[in-house]
């Protein structure tokens, strides 16, 4: 679905630090949303932590950086980090080019799938939230 | 916007002094990744001469091209004709801005004026050492504060372990970097820092950032500093440390510390005390390759900047087989950490940060033994 010109694919779970999660077998794949990748500018670095790291929903666990911005990455669910997108190490711009596809960031083995209930899936709720973000932060040209 | 550059006679002379021999290609970090002659120092001298002679009109493209230089001075050191290309390029960048070819650093200048730091960050960390009277005052700078905070915390920890009586101030950006990218340093920020330094009663100013060190030492806005100035490696060179590592350690000379300020020996004095297994990279001291972060390149060409750091790091690993790479510059540290690939078995630290880690490891060992 498209909201205010930004792509928010259906079937994904969205959280308010601008990351998304997708159920893939028994894992959760996560990445950055379309609005955030545009606002960040060209992403040049994302820290890829060691596998096995324990993550907590809503807590930051690594950093990412564009030429103008340093940001934190927040876990969409609690669990164990089981895979990182190694292509991002030398080509972090994939996050800009294909935020929901080749620009995926991490795979997490979730502790409790019920945590997905804390994330947004309803288009009206996502729309209201992203419109608020645009009012507060604008849209990068 | 068609006026020629107004470079001073000194710089115009330097441009004509360049014999186009191309020696600068061998050491230019930009040429190293582009393999394009127009992008190295000699190419830029030709470009500038063409504009001075009004054979080429200034343009956005030329302004951007002039920004693509880390001002590392490796070309200066290796120029048989005695040209100092970074000085000429800095002057030409100012001319381009004056001609109306604004660049992204106009925004940075505004951000520094508004927030007092390079990154527009609103919140300052509390390092816990503010506004106490002390013989020494420590200045950590924007890159350390907002990009390598944990490293700065460890440096502060080390000074505490060593019993150094120091204080810190409500820092604002030294703003020297603006001079590198076509703008002017900001007098009101310099005045703020000087006033804050003087309020502490300190006699010695210690900087962790080589670029801030250069600004404090050389910029006319800091002529009233009236403090002994030391980079932290100079300050700690005579200290003894109770810790050592068996690991193979190497060192990267930051351009701002080495070629710009001639500080080569003090970092090594410290490293030799803590790392008996110390090896030099092939390109070291005045011949060290740049990490790619300087001269505004990290801001204007971040991807290329990281590529330069990755190339330097790859070479260091191949040449030395070191497990630990040390430096003492927040910009080099940050760029190398961003550039490091996961499969590379090397850890990267500032020297002071690494020594603090060794002390912590010693504490843990002693606790376990007790």
Largest binding interface between chains: A-B, 13 and 12 residues
- What are the low-pLDDT stretches of chain B, counting only 5+ consecutive residues below 50? none
What's the CATH class label of the domain at 136-236 in chain B? Alpha Beta
Overall spatial form of chain B:
globular
- CATH topology descriptor of the domain at 136-236 in chain B: Rossmann fold
Task: Please work out how many helical segments of chain B DSSP would assign.
Answer: 18
Count of β-strands of chain B: 7
Verbal overview:
The complex is a heterodimer of chains A (141) and B (370). In chain A, 21% of the residues lie in helices and 33% in strands. By secondary structure, chain A is of the alpha+beta class. In chain A, strands 3-4-5-11-10-7 form a 6-stranded antiparallel sheet. In chain B, the strands form 2 sheets. Chain B has a 4-stranded parallel sheet. The longest helix of chain B is centred in the C-terminal third of the chain and has 19 residues. Chain B starts with 8 loop residues before the first helix and ends with a helix. The mean pLDDT of chain B is 94. Chains A and B meet through loops of A and helix 15 and helix 16 of B.
Please give a quick description of this structure.
The complex is a heterodimer of chains A (141) and B (370). Chain A is an alpha+beta fold.
List its salient traits.
A: 141 residues, 6-stranded antiparallel β-sheet, 3-stranded antiparallel β-sheet, 4 helices, 21% helix, globular, B: Fumarate Reductase Iron-sulfur Protein, Chain B, domain 2, Rossmann fold, 4-stranded parallel β-sheet, 3-stranded parallel β-sheet, 7% strand
Summarize the helices and strands and which ones pair or pack.
The complex is a heterodimer of chains A (141) and B (370).
Chain A (H helix, E strand, L loop, with lengths): L1 E2 L2 E2 L5 E2 L4 E6 L2 E6 L1 H7 L2 E4 L7 E2 L4 E7 L3 E5 L4 E6 L2 H4 L3 H4 L8 E5 L12 H15 L4
Antiparallel strand pairs in A: 1-2, 3-4, 4-5, 5-11, 6-8, 7-10, 8-9, 10-11
Chain B lengths: L8 H9 L11 H6 L6 H12 L7 H8 L6 H5 L6 H14 L6 H11 L20 E4 L1 H7 L1 H13 L4 E3 L8 H4 L6 H13 L4 E4 L2 H9 L9 E4 H5 L12 E3 L13 H10 L22 H4 L1 H19 L3 E4 L2 H10 L7 E4 H19 L1
Parallel strand pairs in B: 1-2, 1-3, 3-4, 5-6, 6-7
């Amino acid at each position: 679905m498209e909201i205010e010109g930004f792509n928010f694919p259906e079937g994904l779970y969205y959280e308010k630090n601008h990351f998304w999660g997708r159920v893939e077998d028994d894992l959760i794949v996560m990445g950055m949303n379309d609005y955030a990748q545009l606002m960040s500018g060209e992403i040049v670095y994302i820290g890829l932590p060691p596998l096995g790291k324990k993550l907590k929903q809503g807590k930051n666990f690594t950093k990412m950086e564009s030429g103008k911005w340093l940001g934190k990455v927040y876990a969409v669910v609690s669990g164990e980090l089981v895979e990182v997108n190694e292509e991002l190490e030398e080509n972090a711009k994939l996050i800009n080019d294909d935020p929901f596809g080749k620009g995926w960031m991490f795979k997490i083995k979730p502790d409790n799938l019920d945590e997905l209930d804390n994330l947004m899936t309803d288009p009206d709720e996502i729309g209201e939230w992203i419109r608020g973000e645009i009012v507060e932060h604008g849209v990068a040209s | 916007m068609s006026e020629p550059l107004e470079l001073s006679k000194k710089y115009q002379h330097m441009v004509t002094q360049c014999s186009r021999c191309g020696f600068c290609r061998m050491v230019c970090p930009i040429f190293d990744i582009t393999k394009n002659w127009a992008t190295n120092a000699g190419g830029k001298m030709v470009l500038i001469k063409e504009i001075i002679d009004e054979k080429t009109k200034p343009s956005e493209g030329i302004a951007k091209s002039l920004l693509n230089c880390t001002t590392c001075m490796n070309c200066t050191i290796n120029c048989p004709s005695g040209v100092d290309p970074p000085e000429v390029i800095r002057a030409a960048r100012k001319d381009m801005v004056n001609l109306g070819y604004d660049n992204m650093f106009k925004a940075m200048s505004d951000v520094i004026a508004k927030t007092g730091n390079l990154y527009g960050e609103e919140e300052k960390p509390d390092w816990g050492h503010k506004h106490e009277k002390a013989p020494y005052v420590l200045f950590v700078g924007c890159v350390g504060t907002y990009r390598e905070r944990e490293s700065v915390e460890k440096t502060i920890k080390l000074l505490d372990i060593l019993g150094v009586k120091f204080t810190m101030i409500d820092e604002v950006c030294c703003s020297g970097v603006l001079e590198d990218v076509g703008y002017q340093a900001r007098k009101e920020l310099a005045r703020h820092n000087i006033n804050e330094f003087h309020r502490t009663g300190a006699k010695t100013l210690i900087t962790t950032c080589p670029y801030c060190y250069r600004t404090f030492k050389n910029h006319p806005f800091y002529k009233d500093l009236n403090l002994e100035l030391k980079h932290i490696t100079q300050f700690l060179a005579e200290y003894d440390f109770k810790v050592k590592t068996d690991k193979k350690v190497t060192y990267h000379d930051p351009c701002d510390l080495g070629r710009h300020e001639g500080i080569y020996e003090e970092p090594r004095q410290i490293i030799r005390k803590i790392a008996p297994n110390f090896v030099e990279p092939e390109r070291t001291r005045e011949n060290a390759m740049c990490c790619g972060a300087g001269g505004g390149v990290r801001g204007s060409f971040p991807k290329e900047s990281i590529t330069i750091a990755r190339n330097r790091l790859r070479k260091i690993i191949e040449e030395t087989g070191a497990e630990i790479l040390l430096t003492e510059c927040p910009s080099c540290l940050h760029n190398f950490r961003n550039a490091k690939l996961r499969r590379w078995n090397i850890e990267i630290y500032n020297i002071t940060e690494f020594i603090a880690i060794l002390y912590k490891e010693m504490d843990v060992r002693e606790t376990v033994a007790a």
